[in-house]
């Protein structure tokens, strides 16, 4: 499905955005999902195509697999060795740190750079802690307290972990999920070579720098090289553009071209428009989109909810808000939702609960009278439009 588009077309309140949120939840955290509203592409500082390009690259994941050399074990001894500071007179500075790590198989004493000592101090590592040190980058992570120090108390303030098995020095397979935009932003001013470690090293140094097409082309070239060598794999994500009818002809032209790219996510579009004018032109088209882009889309029609479906959704919403709907209250609220919209009916829950509390009822208990009173106090969009038509002479136009 990567590089293809899906269009969710339906009336307002028919569940288009809810479908997109459910899709994001179902994909999980390992697959990129980038939401965007059509109006967000318009800015006085950034070009429309730049906003769309960034959104596209946020929705394309890269799963990088690498083998790291690490030192892992329980800290048996740790000592910092000082040396005179040439520029500070009688002062001294940390020259290096000597750390002894122990695993179930053996122990090893390591002489490390002073920067590792700073990382150990930042993680508040002490004797008896289990640590993880990367050989290439010097990154230090405190895993927890060794379980050999665990006591028989029922309540512990520390998280105890077992002593690692195997050797202190080992090679580990590490998988890291990033997006193309992460690599773009981290390498806006590239430093080092084009290997995987250079790309990942720059992730920790984000800079607010303009991302050029030349840089993106270089990132694509490096990623494609790693794809060919099997070091990385592309994870096509989902780009969701709500209210797509707000885009203009230039944006639609960009979408057409971007969907033909080798690196393209699944694009999900949503609109509540029928036959309308394409923004930036005088041409009328279904859903306010060019016909050639519509031809690329699988169009899914969303229909209005039935009364039973509205009642089911409102029941779940009331339970989430901790409200108890009395006899007939849910049916009354569902009728209001069918007459107006699901959104309006869901918004009536809070004022109905406030009215119920003002009458001295049980906290969170809502009755039919409360629903009717709340419905009489507020207008939905259709009722407000009818009032404007009937009393147009009283308003400034």
From TrEMBL:
One of its GO terms (molecular function) is ATP binding. SMART domains: AAA. The keyword Cell inner membrane does not apply. It comes from the Eukaryota. It catalyses: ATP + H2O = ADP + phosphate + H(+). Keywords: ATP-binding, Helicase, Hydrolase, Nucleotide-binding, Nucleus, Transcription, Transcription regulation. Its main location: nucleus. Coiled coil: none annotated. It holds the Pfam family TIP49. Its EC number is 3.6.4.12. SUPFAM superfamilies: P-loop containing nucleoside triphosphate hydrolases (SSF52540). It is found in: Nucleus. It is an enzyme of class 3 (hydrolase). Belongs to the RuvB family. This is RuvB-like helicase. It comes from Porphyra umbilicalis (Purple laver). The lineage of its organism: Eukaryota, Rhodophyta, Bangiophyceae, Bangiales, Bangiaceae.
């Amino acid at each position: 499905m990567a590089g293809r588009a899906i269009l969710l077309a339906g009336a307002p309140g028919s569940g288009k955005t809810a479908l997109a949120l459910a899709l994001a939840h179902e994909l999980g955290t390992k697959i990129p999902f980038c939401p965007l509203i059509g109006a967000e592409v318009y800015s006085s500082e950034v070009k429309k195509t730049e906003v769309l390009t960034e959104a596209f690259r946020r929705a394309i994941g890269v799963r990088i697999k690498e083998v790291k050399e690490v030192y892992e074990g329980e800290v048996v001894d740790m000592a910092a060795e000082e040396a005179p500071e040439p520029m500070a007179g009688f002062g001294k500075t940390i020259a290096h740190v000597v750390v002894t790590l122990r695993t179930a198989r053996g122990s090893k004493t390591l002489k490390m750079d002073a920067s590792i000592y700073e990382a150990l101090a930042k993680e508040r590592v002490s004797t008896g802690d289990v640590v993880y040190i990367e050989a290439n980058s010097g990154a230090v992570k405190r895993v927890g307290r060794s379980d050999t120090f665990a006591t028989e108390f029922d309540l512990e303030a520390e998280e105890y972990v077992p002593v690692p098995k195997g050797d202190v020095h080992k090679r580990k397979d590490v998988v890291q999920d990033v997006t193309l935009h992460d690599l773009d932003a981290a390498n806006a001013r590239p430093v080092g070579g084009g290997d995987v470690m250079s790309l990942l090293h720059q992730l920790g140094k984000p800079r607010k720098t303009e991302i050029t097409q030349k840089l993106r082309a270089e990132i694509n070239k490096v990623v494609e090289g790693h794809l060919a060598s099997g070091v990385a794999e592309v994870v096509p994500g989902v780009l969701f553009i709500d209210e797509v009818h707000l885009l203009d002809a230039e944006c639609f032209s960009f979408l057409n071209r971007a969907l033909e790219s080798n690196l393209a996510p699944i694009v999900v579009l949503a609109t509540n428009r029928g036959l309308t004018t394409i923004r930036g032109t005088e041409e009328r088209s279904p859903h306010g989109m060019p016909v050639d882009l519509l031809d690329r889309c699988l169009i899914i029609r969303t229909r209005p909810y039935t009364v039973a479906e509205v009642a089911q959704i409102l029941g779940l919403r009331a339970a989430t808000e901790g409200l108890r709907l009395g006899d007939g209250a849910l049916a009354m609220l569902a009728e209001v939702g069918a007459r107006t919209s699901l959104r309006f009916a869901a918004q009536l829950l809070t004022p109905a609960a406030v009215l119920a509390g003002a009458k001295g009822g049980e906290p969170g208990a809502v009755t039919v009278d409360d629903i009717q009173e709340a419905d009489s106090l507020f207008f939905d969009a259709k009722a407000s439009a009818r009032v404007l038509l009937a009393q147009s002479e009283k308003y400034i136009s």
